[in-house]
Specification:
The complex is a heterodimer of chains A (569) and B (93). With 569 residues, chain A is α/β, with parallel strands linked by helices. Helices cover 39% and strands 24% of the residues of chain A. Chain A has three domains: 218 residues, P-loop containing nucleotide triphosphate hydrolases (Rossmann fold), CATH 3.40.50; 224 residues, P-loop containing nucleotide triphosphate hydrolases (Rossmann fold), CATH 3.40.50; 56 residues. In chain A, the strands form five sheets. Chain A has a nine-stranded mixed beta sheet with strand order 5-4-7-8-3-9-10-11-12, sandwiched between helices. Chain A has a nine-stranded mixed beta sheet with strand order 17-16-18-19-15-20-21-22-23, with helices on both faces. Chain A has a two-stranded antiparallel sheet with strand order 1-2. Chain B has one domain: Glutaredoxin (3-Layer(aba) Sandwich), CATH 3.40.30. Chain B is built from three helices and four strands; from the N terminus they run βαβαββα. In chain B, strands 2-1-3-4 form a four-stranded mixed beta sheet. The chains are: A alpha/beta (569), B alpha+beta (93). Strand 6 of chain A pairs parallel with strand 4 of chain B, so a sheet runs across the interface.
Chain lengths: 569, 93
């Protein structure tokens, strides 16, 4: 994800989207929220409660500036020692040499005795000296409220703060100042109010606990003279540092329903019968949701999709929640879905997450990171509904929507499975159905003591698709669908369908026998008629022959003494 | 600057910023404290941080005025205009 952020920044610079007045943080998502970056050469307040991520935000901005943008940084902290901060940097997976990053330990302030008001002109002189010496472009003053707390007098505090900010503006260096949140009346609140008034930009970070899960959000409270995102945006802190879950409008893609059918590019589901139901397959770049109760073969369908993608030579990511990869791979083998070769070739990457260990934002950030690293064109997440295992479903919705949008922006074809319980048979547990382009529902049908799987397409935007319920059959040969068989309003599946088909075959055989019998009878009858006709024809011929002899022949010949004629006695 | 020889010798450095009001006040208050102790004002080494920031960095100075008191291995930093004279005198004596 960090690589993507760097790429975004570089692309923005090339396209001129980053104006000279912007100082990109390089933090994924943050520069999009800030519409390019922080105000360059201006004082910026990073406010928030303890543990909300202020220090990480500042460190990351300095590291990115020094490493990727040729802007050396100076970090001056009144709350942590320089070596502790350097250890913090080591703890993050920030790749590449980080030079031109300088730390000045300001913790000494805590061991200084106070004897009346002081000035920070000396501090400014020291910072200016360090900046000139190292060519510093970005400065962080972490915990400025701590220093101000030693001032003792409001007027002095105000005056010295103004002096510091004047220096920032005149020095043309971007300066991030952190301060803790202040609640209620008091010195800290006054200080906070003053800081908020004099700085050019305020970013407020917040951390709260929902259930057992920590959730973080950031708000750009103020940005003088510039447009910026105005909402509370979720962000996470991972081994890569901060990532804001934000996708700017220009990166959001229209869903495939707006795509003309003739130009639709399809992707196989891995099951030929299902592809037929979708008029050739899923639309490339679309999001498909597969819902169903446990055991309805959601994972199997996801596996078939993954296998087919890898067979086409596409880089593919399979994300599993609460299920180990080797077990899933072994199970899929039993239905003739082999992922071993794809894994060995590196086309397929399988990742595993414990659903209850993190919140939705963290899960989504991890998936986005894997996407950045592996750059897949196809993804399956099984089951996505696990993402809200440790939190109420509604809280997970924005994170899931963000993930879907992010995948769509990269034109990734994805299959998401979602576990449903018996009470909500066709409701998608993760509430993905509204953002998904295609929705396949798997269910059970119990007939004659047998449980069978049924597959229905509930939604397929912009695709001619079958609306019939099909029986899904898993065998050693793979997955197939049986035609729907409806008898008296009841769909027959499994053995019931087999019995019915046998019955139909028997009836057909009997009917054929009856037909043959009737045919033979008709043939005999016809022959008899033909024989009669022949006999009559013979008789007729005789009569006609007699007729031809005429009356003379009919009169008795004088010499004829036959019994038929002759002389009268 | 006066640097008394041997262990327990007192060394004073006052870090200031030019002729700022705070620096002037600290200079004045320190001189008064030294006088009350019968110590010469000349023993104070004055360092303008604007001119010699490297020295301030080396000494761990952040704000001005700051008085650095060194007695043998011991060292104290007192920041501000040195208006709390009792505490200052206690440190210097």
């Amino acid at each position: 994800m960090a690589r993507a952020a760097r790429k975004n920044t570089q692309e923005r610079k090339k396209s001129g989207q980053v104006s000279a007045q912007r100082c990109p943080t390089g933090i994924p998502g943050v520069d999009d929220i800030l519409e390019g970056g922080l105000p360059r050469g201006r004082p910026i307040l990073i406010a928030g409660s303890p543990g909300s991520g202020k220090t990480v935000f500042c460190l990351q901005t300095l590291v990115n500036g020094a490493r990727d943008m040729g802007e050396p940084g100076l970090y001056l902290s009144f709350e942590e020692r320089g070596r502790e901060l350097q250890s913090s940097i080591q703890a993050f997976d920030w790749k590449g040499p980080i030079e031109d990053l300088h730390f000045h330990d300001a913790m000494v302030i805590h061991s200084v005795e106070s004897s009346g008001p002081f000035e920070i002109a000396g501090l400014i002189a020291i910072i200016e000296h360090l900046c000139t010496k190292h060519g510093i472009r970005r400065v962080v003053l972490d915990g400025i409220d701590v220093l101000m707390g030693y001032m003792g007098e409001d007027a002095a505090e105000h005056r010295e703060l103004q002096r510091l900010l004047d220096w920032v503006r005149n020095s043309d260096r971007t300066c991030l100042i952190t301060a803790k949140d202040a609640h209620g009346p008091g010195e800290q609140a006054k200080r906070q109010e003053l800081l908020q008034f004099v700085v050019d930009c305020i970013i407020h970070l917040e951390r709260r606990i929902a259930g057992r899960i920590s959730q973080r959000t950031m708000v750009v409270v103020k940005y003088r003279g510039s447009a910026h995102g105005v909402n509370a945006y979720p962000f996470v802190i991972t081994s890569l540092g901060i990532s804001a879950l934000y996708l700017p409008p220009h990166q959001k893609k229209a869903d495939p329903k707006t795509t003309h059918r003739s130009s639709r590019k399809t992707v196989s589901t891995g099951v030929r019968d299902i592809d037929k139901m979708f008029d050739g397959g899923l639309t490339r770049g679309s999001t498909t949701l597969i819902t169903g109760q446990p055991g309805t073969a959601k994972t199997t369908l996801a596996g078939a999709f993954v296998e087919a993608a890898c067979e086409r030579g596409e880089r593919t990511l399979l994300v599993l929640f609460d299920e180990y990869a080797d077990r899933v791979v072994a199970n899929l083998r039993s239905v003739n879905i082999a992922l071993d070769r794809a894994l060995a070739s590196g086309l397929l990457r399988i990742e595993y997450r414990i659903a209850s260990a993190s919140g939705p934002d963290d899960h989504v950030a991890a998936i986005q990171n894997w996407i950045s690293e592996h750059e897949p064109t196809c993804i399956a997440i099984d089951p996505l509904s696990a993402i809200n295992k440790s939190i109420d479903a509604n809280t997970a919705v924005p994170a899931i929507e963000h993930l879907v949008q992010a995948m769509r922006a990269r034109d990734i074809t994805c299959v998401l499975t979602s576990l449903t319980d018996g009470s909500t048979t066709e409701a998608s547990g993760a509430h993905v159905s509204t953002v998904a382009d295609t929705w396949v529902h798997l269910s059970y049908a119990i007939q004659r003591g047998e449980r069978n799987r049924a597959l229905t397409i509930i939604k397929a935007r912009g695709i001619a698709h079958s609306g019939s319920v099909r029986e899904m059959i898993l065998s050693n040969d793979g997955i197939s669908l049986a035609a729907a068989l409806e008898i008296d309003g009841e769909l027959l599946m499994g053995r019931a369908r087999a019995f019915h088909e046998e019955d139909l075959q028997e009836r057909a055989a009997l009917a054929a026998q009856d037909a043959e019998r009737e045919r033979l009878a008709r043939q005999l009858e016809r022959q008899a008629v033909l024989d009669q006709i022949d006999a009559l024809k013979g008789k007729l011929a005789s009569l006609e022959a007699l007729e031809l002899k005429g009356p003379d022949r009919a009169r008795p010949d004088p010499g004829d003494h036959g019994h038929g004629g002759g002389e009268p006695r | 600057m006066t640097d008394t020889e041997g262990n327990g010798s007192l060394r004073l450095r006052l870090f200031v910023t030019d002729e700022s009001p705070g620096s002037c006040a600290a200079r004045h208050n320190l001189a008064a404290a030294l006088e009350s102790l019968g110590l010469p004002a000349e023993m104070v080494e004055e360092i303008d941080v604007m001119v010699l920031p490297e020295l301030a960095i080396k000494a761990g100075i952040l704000v001005t005025p700051t008085l650095e008191i060194m007695r043998g291995a011991e060292r104290w930093l007192i920041a501000g205009r040195l208006t709390v004279t009792d505490a200052l005198v206690a440190r210097l004596s």
